[in-house]
Amino acid sequence: MAQIPNLDNSPINLSSIREQSQKELLNILKNVRGKKCLVIDPKLGGSLSLLIQTSLLKENGAELRHLSAEPIQTECSKVMYLIRSQLNLMKFISSHIQNDLSKGLQKEYFVYFVPRRTVVCEKVFEEEKVHHLITFGEYPLYIMPLDEDVLSCELDHTFRECLIDGDTSSLWHVGKAIHKLEFSFGVIPNVRAKGKGSAKIVDILNSLQAEEPVNSSDMGTPEINTLILIDREVDMVTPMCFQLTYEGLLDEIVQVNNGAVEVDASVIGTQQDGKKIKIPLNSSDKLYKEIRDLHFEEVVQVLRERATSMQKDYADVKSTSQSVSELKDFVKKLNSLPEIARHVSLAQHLQTFTCKPSFHSRLDIEQTILELQNYDLCFEYIEEMIHKQEPIIHVFRLLVLLSVSNSGLPKKSFDYLRREILHSYGFEHMPTLYNLEKAGLVKRQESKSNWLMISKALQLIPSESEAANPNDISYIFSGYAPLSIRLVQHAIRSGWRSIEEILKLLPGPHLDLKRGGSTSGSAIDRVPSFQSNLDRVTDGHRALVLVVFVGGVTFAEIAALRFLSSQDGMGYDFIIGTTKIINGNTVLESIISTN
Amino acid sequence: MAAVSVAAEWQLLYNRYYRKPEIYSMQWGRMDLTRHRVACAPFGGPIAVIRDDSKIVQLYAESARRKLHIFNSAGVLLASTVWDRPGGRLVGMAWTDDHVLVCVVQDGTVYRYDVHAEICAPQFSMGKECFEQSVVECVFWGNGMVCLTEGNRIFCVSDFKNPKPCKLADPALEDYPLCVAVIEPQYTMHGNVEVLLGVGDHVLAVEEDSVQQLGAGVDPLQKMAVSPNGKYLAAFTHDGRLLVIPTDFSRIISEYSCESTLPPEQIAWCGMDSVLLYWEDMLLMVGPTGDPVRYLYDEPIILIPEGDGVRILSNSVMEFLQRVPDSTVSIFQIGSTRPAALLYDALEHFDRRSAKADENLRMIRASLPEAVKACIDAAGHEFDVSRQCTLLRAASYGRAFCSQFPRDYFQDMCKTLRVLNAVRNHEIGIPLSIQQYKLLTTPVLIGRLINVYHHLLALQISEYLNLNPEVVIMHWACTKISASSSINDTDLLEILLDKLKLCKGISYAEIAAHADNSGRRKLAAMLIDHERRSSKQVPLLLSIGEEDTALVKATESGDNDLVYLVVFHIWQKKMPLDFFGTINARPLARDLFIMYARCYKHEFLKDFFLSTGQLQDVAFLLLKESWELEMNLLANKGSPLQGPRIRLIEQAQKLFSETKEQNFESKAAEEHAKLLRLQHELEVSTKQAIFVGSSISDTIRTCIVLGNHRAATRVRAEFKVSDKRWYWLKAFALATVRDWDSLEKFSKEKRPPGGYKPFVEACIDADDKTEALKYISKLTDPREKSEVSIHMHFVKCETFFIAYSGSVLNVILIFL
């Protein structure tokens, strides 16, 4: 199975977007004639693996390398860099060029920025006095499909940059990405945004529309009906909770990267030990599509049923009383066997983690924190983790959860825990603590927490009786409905107005507007209320909602949205846009790594 | 019948009709073309007139100083200026495609004027050789020119937009050539101009790097003209014959012997079908065969070749000689019974309420669409408005009886004619034929209109044809600014905005740039404010020195690239302290600057933080330096001296202690320094370099693992490690080295402050269940107890799953 996902079942023509990006990339390669050494920054290379086969790049005369501090060893006289316009990468390139110069090598250098040239990156080359040696270009890849309903800008550090560094460049990137989508699918008429970044994106989107208008008259009705933008900052609780869906759990435990996991060969059952195997995970795998969003416990059940039925069929076959057509059915079923085997192995691997008592106690403590019931118990639990020197990332996840739900920590325990962390993990974590405080993730308590109020108003934690309700998204976290998804639910159902009071308790402004080209005026008249437009499925046409998470989204949240749209009577499909797929660890890691 | 009188004006040449309607009577009053050098632009362009200084002429009531006059095609004066250019006699003057008047004087200097008789581009010289040898003759085409010198050398400028004079190959002539013509670059094989020289009894084709002899023995040629498509040459021989030959001289296509052997003054192609020869008083039109047509003139004329005919300019009128288009012939030819003629006739009957109209229509029922189309086409070819009307009415009348005829065709023609009639008005003076108009295209026509400041008409045409009026309004605005030096900025802005708002998405930045170039910086600033495209607005603001506004606009735009642009601009312009001040007042600019500086300008960043009083940030930078020092030490396995590191940390501590908010950091830095010193001591005393870089807890564990309990206790005391943590650390450290006795002893020292959990977990962690059991019984908390027992059973649960899934795998293995 290929790592490049199949997009045929997408509710919107994502293939065309991907094909365009492929074509642009190949054109760039063709622009530089002859043999060349293509140096890709590794993060970008990972993303590109979802876009294009590396063999295609090689066919165009490119010798592939990954960008690092090491000088490039190549026979080619043309060196082509394909890099994200990220500051710290520039020094590698300039050092490569200087290295070549010192050896008296004469080469042609091409630097293609993804998605565009920036003043600041070129400034680095100017300062290093290599600018005149380079031919610059752009590869305008702003957004790419990860799966049939997920689009990503592949921006790793949006959250950190916006909240800690004050660098809002990624907001412009997201705005531009959405604007590009509008060129293909029409101007999105309804926009709801929550959070500072989201509001800024709406601004940017509007000014982009003013600068380079999407001509709505030749596009017909817009294919995407509503855009919902939500800042990650608005809901930092959800990513800190351990994900319990199959896909979420895979990401938490073995890390899903660019739509694939890498595991030891032994996990999959082959005998070569120590070798890593890459397993692609996307909707092209039918079984995976079925179980990816289920709670892990259910996944185990489904797999068990599949396996037993297979076993039964096998027994029947052996009893030889089968007709030929029955045999044929059986053989057909056998085709799904490799898929079953693969997921059984993966599930088994996950189970070695979920069986541990520490796993359960962690889930317990998460729930306790969310219910805001026993602060001391939570505090002691975290204290003990620090004393035991458990991985610092685990400590931070719970600490952030505790701090965010309590609107900060009482000064005494705040200072105490910070000191214990520095003592246990080293003083090198001082900037991390400072950053966490700056981002408001772990801070001193200054006001009373309003988490309970939010949680009650949005029914984030269902009561015992409701917990049995199979139609609610709270199944995702075994009894916690993600705040972000609840907001989306409200935004679609009735707009922000009904939960205005709650929104005010969450960080950042919210806004709700209608836009569009010259025809927008009449469009509004025709659709008196948004509700009637969305909730009722007229002529079998399902409205399409683009939900963009600024600062990242977790697999659990994606699962929740898919679950919502699969519910009876919900007349809409979701396309999920994000700056990056994240989980609690990756968000915190980007804050911890100081450089 | 009216139809007869139309055809009565035609002349038959061979089997084709020609007509020569008068399009303008010239508005320029008394004019004698013979006294002047005249340059007429094709496509109904302007006419430049200047007194000919190569002739001796009588001066009437006029100044002795020569004046350059520019008229439109109807002889309306557009502009004039005194000709006072040095460099000798004017030897060549012509219009380029862009309506730039190129004037070449004897010494090879080239002056360029616009239609307003103003110098529009810097003068340039054709080179030293031209200067020394003197230019004798110039031949122009589209945007290029060749000139011949007295030394019989040829020089060429292939594009006046980017004038780079170059010398062509030397034809090595002793005498000046008899005649000269050029084949335009677009018609030659190699894309460079080819010059034909009539020399002796042959022709030389001169290119940039070669000279080729053509048509040997063709007879000396006195006059030549290349056909509009560059394929044929019309040549007048010394014995009075007119030859038409392909430009490769492979054969003679036609030949006509004139009565005179005197070479004509002018020779020109009329379309592709005939050649015009002009001697004083007589214009002779020679076709492929048959008798030529003779026109007599009692005043001098100038032939202006167009693609589909020749305009004939005389002192008093402008005429257009063209072959009568087929559709017109089919209607107006005497005795024509073509459907179009019958349709036209039917309209006349209809107007007279005669029943014959119906009869006519019946006769041509089957070919009605063809007839309608012919009438529409013929209308398009007419210059006379009333005749256009009649023809269109005829078409409209016929169309009523054939519903399938495409409606657009009629409408488009009406639109085209409206535009043509508008520009043909003598005030505008652009007598385009429909064919010329189609060749020229509307945007170019609009460009020409705005060039001569007919902005309103251009705007009306744009709106009428649904074209974007941006070009027109933009040009108007710029012209307005240039022409309004006496209007103050605010008023002018209002006047401009009033019109600019007509056009959505117009680039205010471009107009502002023009205002700035015209020395109106304040107006420019006001205009930029209206620009919605930040990417255009910001760079312009920088160029007019409005850095602060640029920074605000860049920040608002959300495009951080622009912010960086401004930041770097200011950085370059200002002293560091000023720069710091500006940046610090703008959070986004500051943060972006810090991002960049963090990567590439570490020291400068420190200065910034210091000068703006952000001491804690300096402190963090110092800490970072200290950690980087450690990395380097580790990498180099260098000296274990921690002095420089500790000094940095202490500096940081001092900075932290400056503010109350950083109390925590200050204490931490203090402890950090203390730890390093202590670790250094430990490394010296244990002679093992394993302490530096680890945390306090790690240090304690390492000490215990090494059996150095005294050191461990010392570290504990130095850093006031709590009992709780101490128990965890020690229990785990002892379990790591499986020192079970010490562990037990430790557990019995006193009642552990946090219970026995650390002991149980340490044993389980070391995978020794029997040891663990010792302490499990001592657990008091039932919750802890149950957790541990689950842990002990955990192995079972795992085994179950493996057993179960193993069976599945069996199935799989059987079939694979």
Descriptive report:
Chain B: Its main location: membrane. Chain B: This is Protein VACUOLELESS1. Chain B: Residues 506-793 form the Vps16 C-terminal domain. The complex is a heterodimer of chains A (595) and B (816). Chain A has 595 residues and is α/β, with parallel strands linked by helices. Chain A has three domains: 14-141, Rossmann fold, CATH 3.40.50.2060; 145-237 and 480-593, Sec1/Munc18 (SM) protein, domain 2 (Rossmann fold, 3-Layer(aba) Sandwich); 246-354, Sec1/Munc18 (SM) protein, domain 3a (Syntaxin Binding Protein 1, Chain A, domain 2), CATH 3.90.830. Chain A is built from 28 helices and 15 strands. Chain A has a seven-stranded mixed sheet with strand order 6-7-15-14-9-8-13, with helices on both faces. The longest helix of chain A has 23 residues, at 296-318. With 816 residues, chain B is an alpha+beta fold. Among the domains of chain B are: 31-167, YVTN repeat-like/Quinoprotein amine dehydrogenase (Methylamine Dehydrogenase, Chain H); 533-611; 614-691; 694-781. Chain B contains 31 helices and 30 strands. In chain B, the strands form seven sheets. In chain B, strands 1, 2, 3, 28, 29 and 30 form a six-stranded antiparallel sheet that branches. In chain B, strands 4-5-6-7 form a four-stranded antiparallel sheet, with no helix packed on it. In chain B, strands 8-9-10-11 form a four-stranded antiparallel sheet. In chain B, strand 18 and strand 19 form a beta hairpin. In chain B, helix 7 runs antiparallel to helix 8 and helix 20 packs antiparallel against helix 21. Chain B is elongated. Chain B starts with a helix and ends with a helix. Residues 794-816 of chain B have low confidence and may be disordered. Chains A and B meet through helix 4, helix 5, helix 7, helix 8 and helix 13 of A and helix 18, helix 20, helix 22, helix 24 and helix 25 of B.
Topology diagram in text:
The complex is a heterodimer of chains A (about 600) and B (about 800).
Chain A: H1 14-31, E1 36-40, H2 42-48, H3 54-59, E2 62-66, E3 78-84, H4 87-102, E4 108-114, H5 119-127, E5 134-138, E6 144-147, E7 150-152, H6 158-165, H7 169-185, E8 190-194, H8 196-211, E9 226-231, H9 237-240, H10 246-254, E10 256-257, E11 260-264, H11 265-268, E12 276-280, H12 286-291, H13 296-318, H14 324-334, H15 337-354, H16 357-371, H17 375-387, H18 392-405, H19 411-425, H20 430-438, H21 451-457, H22 464-467, H23 483-494, H24 500-505, E13 510-514, H25 520-526, H26 530-535, E14 543-550, H27 555-566, E15 572-578, H28 584-592
Parallel strand pairs in A: 1-2, 1-3, 3-4, 4-5, 7-15, 8-9, 9-14, 14-15
Antiparallel strand pairs in A: 6-7, 8-13, 10-11, 11-12
Chain B: H1 2-8, E1 11-13, E2 16-19, E3 22-25, E4 36-40, E5 47-51, E6 67-71, E7 77-82, E8 90-95, E9 101-105, E10 109-113, E11 119-125, H2 128-133, E12 135-141, E13 144-149, E14 154-157, E15 166-167, E16 179-183, E17 194-199, E18 202-206, E19 211-214, E20 221-226, E21 232-237, E22 241-246, E23 254-257, E24 266-270, E25 274-279, E26 282-286, E27 293-296, E28 301-306, E29 309-314, E30 317-323, H3 326-332, H4 339-351, H5 356-363, H6 368-381, H7 385-399, H8 407-424, H9 434-440, H10 442-451, H11 455-464, H12 470-483, H13 489-500, H14 508-517, H15 521-528, H16 534-543, H17 547-557, H18 560-573, H19 576-584, H20 587-600, H21 602-611, H22 615-636, H23 643-656, H24 663-686, H25 696-705, H26 709-718, H27 723-736, H28 740-749, H29 757-765, H30 769-776, H31 782-815
Antiparallel strand pairs in B: 1-2, 2-30, 3-30, 4-5, 5-6, 6-7, 8-9, 9-10, 10-11, 12-13, 13-14, 14-15, 16-17, 17-18, 18-19, 20-21, 21-22, 22-23, 24-25, 25-26, 26-27, 28-29, 29-30
Helix pairs in contact in B: 3-4, 3-6, 4-5, 4-6, 4-7, 6-7, 6-8, 7-8, 10-11, 10-12, 11-12, 12-13, 12-14, 13-15, 14-15, 16-17, 16-18, 17-18, 18-20, 20-21, 21-22, 22-23, 23-24, 25-26, 25-27, 27-28, 27-29, 29-30
